[in-house]
Amino acid sequence: MTMKISRTNTAAALWCLMIIGFALVPVLMTSTYQLNLACHVLIWGLFAVAFNMLWGVTGMLSFGQALYYGLGAYFVGLMVEYLGRAWYLPAIGIGILAAALTAFLLGLIVIRVGGVYFTMLTLAFGQLAWQIMFKWYEFTGGDDGIQGIIPPGILANPIVYYYGLLVLVMISIWMLKRMAYSPFGLILRCVRQNPERVRFLGRRVRRNQLRVYIISSLFAALAGSLMAGVDNSIHTDMFFWTTSGEVILMSVLGGLNQFFGPFVGAAVIIMIEDIVGAWTEYWSLIIGTVILVMVIAFPKGLVGELHQLKLRLTQLRARRSQ
Amino acid sequence: MNPILQLESVHKAFGGLQVTQNVSFAVMPGEISAIIGPNGAGKTTLFNQITGHLKPERGRILFKGHDVVGDSPQKIVSRGMGRAFQIASLFPDETVLDNIKVACLSKLDQTRRFFRPVRYFRQATERSYAILEDLGLAQHAGRLAFELSHGDQKLLDIGIALVLEPQLLLLDEPTAGMSPEERHRTRDMIKKLWKAYDLTLVFIEHDMDMVFGIAQKVRVLQQGALLAEGTPDEIRSNKAVVSAYLGEEL
Lengths: 322, 250
Prior knowledge:
The structure holds two protein chains of two kinds.
Chain A: H1 2-28, H2 32-57, H3 66-83, H4 88-110, H5 115-135, H6 137-140, E1 146-147, H7 158-180, H8 183-193, H9 195-200, H10 205-231, E2 233-234, H11 241-254, H12 261-279, H13 283-297, H14 301-321
Antiparallel strand pairs in A: 1-2
Chain B: E1 5-14, E2 17-27, E3 32-36, H1 43-50, E4 58-63, E5 66-67, H2 73-78, E6 81-84, H3 96-107, H4 122-135, H5 150-163, E7 168-172, H6 180-196, E8 200-204, H7 208-214, E9 217-222, E10 225-230, H8 232-236, H9 239-244
Parallel strand pairs in B: 3-8, 3-9, 6-7, 7-8
Antiparallel strand pairs in B: 1-2, 1-4, 4-5, 9-10
Helix pairs in contact in B: 3-4, 3-5, 4-5
């Protein structure tokens, strides 16, 4: 019983620490550049955690989540561009709904195939979307994208926008965490480990895969739509396969089997990009090396290995006190 | 009383090989019976046809009066037939408790609950602990399934099947690969579960202590055909069976 209480307390303490830490960013940091960096960590963190519901939890390696991330961003960007700034917030909601609908329709197709075929098919659809956005110059601005997307009213203030974003991201991650530990989350983990047995429990494997595909995609769209207001622009890279690849790297780095792993992975990769990028343009080389070392030496990821270390220390202490 | 399971001239061939040859028998409710036979006699193939994994070419398989030939395995499971596999089919990275709990939540149709943590589902939790208690696995509830011993994994597999409250449970070599001591424990456990859960049990087994120790009825398969059927005493003194198991002590 005391075990349980202390575990819940630790979790609550970590949540508080994380929220306070991010809430203090605008107070402690003076430059808008650093604020911008914190926004990137939060958005990519949400995107990666949502992606990991698919991969780490359910075992579905999608290589096309950029499709939904881009969709969210482009709904905001295009509606603000053509309809006006007042459409900024409604566009977020509409983009999420559009992403959910797209995920439902595409999901019906891509979920029919498993394993590497699923991965390839999601990649194909992602690249198809990228190609459309790239070629449709008159509407989307093609390679140039669209600049000058400013949120309306008080949200135009970066600090206000930051706090709004912080609240939305934290609520989303909290919702995803509740989901991961609900009966639905348990079924998803079971689908990854032994789909045949899940069928024998009278549950439908594909329907649950479709559900999590839609959920993951709509949170990816939310992340994308929030990004439009951070960089005040949208660009076709948001749809490109490297964007899908980035969340895969973040999940691997942080730890696939840990809920917060991808979030930590996102923070680390963005920091590396920022710090190393300041003195060399070959920062991707450093990231490549880091990922290589992680995969070979620490396959559980940063959070996973930390967890393991903690476990071993408690065991050691227990043995010593005996 | 009507039989719970009735096979009528079930026939199946893989190419030229007759794996099931006109097998007919009836299993009465509440019965505990064994299917024995040398390797390759078609025991598992017969199970696969009963549970819908394979479709027989001819014949009927009546489960509680319904012909289940052509039904999917899932549909047959939902009718009340359970099965444990030769190799335990578990969720290896989940705890022992959650392995049972996911089955309980499925049975209670609560797997679409998105927001409440699993541990707050009291009915499923209590039921899971009760089953783990019956299986003698309660002290391992918090361990991960893959950490369990071979024997305990097979028991857990049976436990998952029990959650769905089957009336008929088929066990494919429940003691295969176990140490003599584990085998003993499993045998006692299966007998206990049979009584406690009011089951009709059919098991495939090579371990003759188990077969003659707990089965009320024994059926012998040889080259896909039913060679003999009877009480353990009848089977032991059956000349055809003895010669099929030439040299082996029954």
